[in-house]
Amino acid sequence: MTKILKINRRRPEVPKIRIAAEVLRKGGLVAFPTETVYGLGADALNAAAVRKIFEVKGRPFDNPLIVHIADRKEVCRLAKEIPDNARELMNEFWPGPLTLVLKKSEVVPDVTTGGLDTVAVRMPDNKIALAMIKEAGVAVAAPSANIFSKPSPTSAAHVAHDLYGKVDVIIDGGVARIGVESTVVDLTTTPPTLLRPGGISLEDLKKVLGRVVLHPAVRVEKTRITAKSPGMKYRHYAPDASVIVVEGRRRKVGRKMRQLVEEYKRKGKIVGVMATNRRCGYTADVVKFAGNDPAAVAKNLFKVFRKFDEEGVDVILAEGVGEKGLGLAIMNRLKKAAYKVVKA
Ligand code: AMP
Ligand code: MG
Questions:
Q1: Whole-prediction pTM
Q2: Is residue 234 one of the residues assigned to a domain?
Q3: Is 287 part of a structural domain of the chain?
Q4: Does a cis peptide bond (omega within 30 degrees of 0) precede residue 95?
């Protein structure tokens, strides 16, 4: 049985927080809101509890989890060493959508870190999440609260769609403010490596760290060209419909999109378009406006993916966005979800 707890995001009700915290302490699973997306949490130091996260999501065991904390001092327990740049990043961006990868201490079980000798840690900027973690008194390992490879959940309804009946508690704390996952930066390398772009931009990271290198997987398509298995190896965050991303100059993208809409309609497909301009004039079967600035697109992206599936679309043509600021995270998610990326 899954208990749904509706909690006020501004003034979390203490008795409800206690219920969720108690479940975590006893080794259960709680889906909870964060500012990025909803997380599926378990006591990070309880290997049996963490194993359940992987089973419920269908997530491969070599895919490590992020450990969520509510007190900076917890990092000292989870990490073997804390470099100066980690402290600077915590001061600047915590609580917030930034995950730090550090050398792990002995207390963190292998299942939590996917067998790696590093641990990923973050302090979420959400009152419900922070109150729950504090009350539980345990660090909370949590990936996104969706079935593996599906779009991440940005509302409790999305979580319930994927996980109702499989977890102990789903907290409903409203819509996620940012809508894409946290930025993951590895501080065990010199210079630090950006492993996943997210809620904190690369530009902001560089202001604190100076040089940051991008892991090759961040801009997926290059990897994909060598992998030669479109839509397979790196597919992630993906709706049931096939996503085709069109990137390039804005005017050219519009023209290419219109051409592709007609092409797929002729093939008898139900065609959806994800647009970033309300007056785009696309003649697709379903047109969804994701927003016209990066913050809006990030917030709506996964919701729009799920809506297309509800409406039975076969193909989603998505307008690419510029890779500045949050745009890098948006393009990363679009490309990971994509069956193919087309240059306009
Ligand atoms: P999710 O929360 O489902 O979006 O997944 C957690 C993300 O954090 C994944 O992209 C992981 O690869 C990444 N991550 C977690 N722990 C580590 C680690 N120790 N080293 C590198 N990446 C990590
Ligand atoms: Mg995920």
A1: 0.95
A2: no
A3: yes
A4: yes
Q: What tokens appear for 277 in the block?
A: 């301009």
State the residue range of the domain holding 304.
242-343
What ligand has the least distance to the C-alpha of 152?
Answer: 2
Task: Give the total number of structural domains in the chain.
Answer: 2
Whose Cα sits closest to atom 11 in ligand 1? 64
Q: Tell me, yes or no, whether 230 lies in a domain.
A: no
Task: Please state, in angstroms and rounded to a whole number, the distance separating the CA atoms of residues 141 and 112.
Answer: 7
Judge if the beta carbon of residue 101 lies within 6 A of ligand 1.
yes
> How far is the centre of ligand 1, averaged over its atoms, from the C-alpha of 218 (Å)?
13
Domain of 174, CATH number, reads: 3.90.870.10
pLDDT, position 296:
97
Residues 69, 202 within the same domain? yes
Query: Do 252 and 210 fall into the same domain?
Result: no
Residue nearest to atom 10 of ligand 1 (CA): 196
Residues 45 and 185 in one domain: yes
**pLDDT tens-digit series, residues 48-106:** 999 999 999 999 899 999 999 999 999 999 999 999 999 999 999 999 999 999 999 99
Residues with CB under 5 A from ligand 2 (ion): 143-144
| Consecutive H or E run containing 247 | strand 242-247
Q: 210-257 pLDDT, tens per residue?
A: 999 999 888 865 445 444 333 344 568 888 999 999 999 888 999 999
